[in-house]
Each structure stands twice: as structure tokens, then as C-alpha cells.
Design goal:
Helices cover 51% and strands 10% of the residues. The protein has helices at residues 14-26, 45-48, 77-84, 86-95, 111-122, 126-138, 140-143, 148-158, 163-170, 173-190, 212-225; strands spanning 57-59, 66-72, 100-106, 197-200, 203-204. A hairpin with a 2-residue loop joins strand 4 (197-200) and strand 5.
């Protein structure tokens, strides 16, 4: 495999064409990738949150004491499990109470992940994008399959897309470039080499379980400082 990951072609139709190939010929190509093994345990918050050409998709008040940044891949099973379990608990206890701001950043490990991320982005509305991400994770097993194109179109229509706008979104080469730049920056500058990866006020969370308790070990002391 050349480079750090499967390299996304820059031609404007590539994602849509690959989805067609996935559905009608070669079947689904699993999400995996080998990234540079860079051990970075902490990143200055200002550097981590610096603009990178894409608006932040976030939940929670902007001035919360704690900011969690997640790097996620939409086809990643561990990411889906996190969002269906731990994230829901964090949201209820910390995000909805104004203590934590949660930022979702795309780190697509394959073309299907990029397609899911692009659809969320094309809504051009933070709340709608976050809601679509939730649906994509809850139905991940359906669209990370040989039925990818059909299921993604169905989900997209429920979010307000037409077939025309769905196809136009997946042909947006500039958006694809921005997603790739975000992924590459996270890899090279922040040492992100797997999904999901988390930074809590700039500190990398090292956890095998991704349980609420593991997050609280880091969040608690930060909240107690205030």
C-alpha cells in the first residue's frame, strides 16, 4: 500500500465511482491502514484547535472547561461502538451540562469512510451533520457492505438529500481534498495513527476500553481546577 493510507484519487468523480464498483463488482474493501508510528502524548490546545480549512462539527457549549477532540473514521467499528455507548453517557453527564465540548473530526481510513464523512459535510449545518453521523454509526453494518450505495442513498434521502444532491456531494473533489488534508495533518502533526483517537484539552487519551471511567480519569482533574 503506497503512502500512509489508501490514497484517495483527486479526480472529481472518484468516490462515487468507487462506490459503484463496490456495489456492482469487487465488493467492500475493509477499512484498514498503517500510519506512521509517532508517539505524541500531548498537543498544545491552540495548535490542536487551529483552523484547518473545515469547520468544526461539535456538540456542547463553545466555552466549556474541557474540550474533547475525536478523530474518527465512519466505517470504523470501534468508532461506531464508542458513539453508541460511551459517547451517549458522556453527552448526558458532561456535554449537555455545559462541562465538555465534544469535537468530531474526520479521519477517513478508506473510501466508504470518506463517503460517509462527505455526506455529513454536505448538509452544511452542524446539528444536521452531527445527527447524520449518529445515524451512519447506528446503521454502519448496513452500509459498510456490498449494499453501500443503496443504503447510503436511503439514509441520505432521510436527511434531506435528493439523488442528484447525493451524487453531487460524492463528486465534490474539493471537499475530498480538505478531508484528506485534515487526515494527513492529524497523522503528521498530532501522531494520530488509529481510530477512534481522542485528545482531552490537548492530552492524548491512551485507553483500551474507551469507557466512561477512562475519560473521567482525565476530565475530573481538569474540571476540579476550575
Amino acid at each position: 500500500m503506497p503512502g500512509l493510507l489508501k490514497i484517495f484519487n483527486d479526480r472529481i468523480c472518484i468516490i462515487y465511482l468507487i462506490l459503484i464498483l463496490v456495489v456492482f463488482s469487487v465488493g467492500f474493501i475493509p477499512a484498514h491502514g498503517v500510519l506512521a508510528e509517532v508517539q505524541i502524548n500531548e498537543v498544545p490546545t491552540k495548535k490542536l484547535l487551529a483552523p484547518d480549512g473545515l469547520s468544526e462539527l461539535s456538540v456542547g457549549v463553545p466555552d466549556a472547561e474541557v474540550t474533547i477532540v475525536e478523530y474518527m473514521s465512519m466505517s470504523c467499528a470501534a468508532c461506531a461502538k464508542f458513539h453508541k455507548t460511551t459517547y451517549s453517557e458522556l453527552k448526558k453527564k458532561y456535554i449537555d451540562t455545559g462541562k465538555v465540548r465534544f469535537v468530531m473530526r474526520e479521519f477517513p481510513l478508506d473510501n466508504l469512510a470518506a463517503a460517509g464523512a462527505m455526506l455529513a459535510r454536505c448538509l452544511n449545518d452542524n446539528n444536521k451533520s452531527v445527527a447524520l453521523i449518529s445515524v451512519l454509526y447506528s446503521r454502519q453494518r448496513e452500509w459498510v457492505s456490498s449494499q453501500a450505495l443503496e443504503v447510503l442513498l436511503e439514509i441520505a434521502k432521510q436527511a434531506g438529500f435528493s439523488k442528484v444532491s447525493f451524487e453531487a456531494c460524492l463528486k465534490d473533489g474539493e471537499l475530498l481534498k480538505k478531508l484528506r488534508r485534515r487526515r494527513d495533518k492529524a497523522d503528521k502533526e498530532f501522531g494520530v495513527n488509529a481510530t477512534p483517537s481522542f485528545f482531552i484539552n490537548g492530552k492524548r487519551l491512551r485507553s483500551h476500553t474507551l469507557s466512561v471511567e477512562e475519560f473521567e480519569k482525565v476530565i475530573g482533574p481538569l474540571l476540579n481546577k476550575s
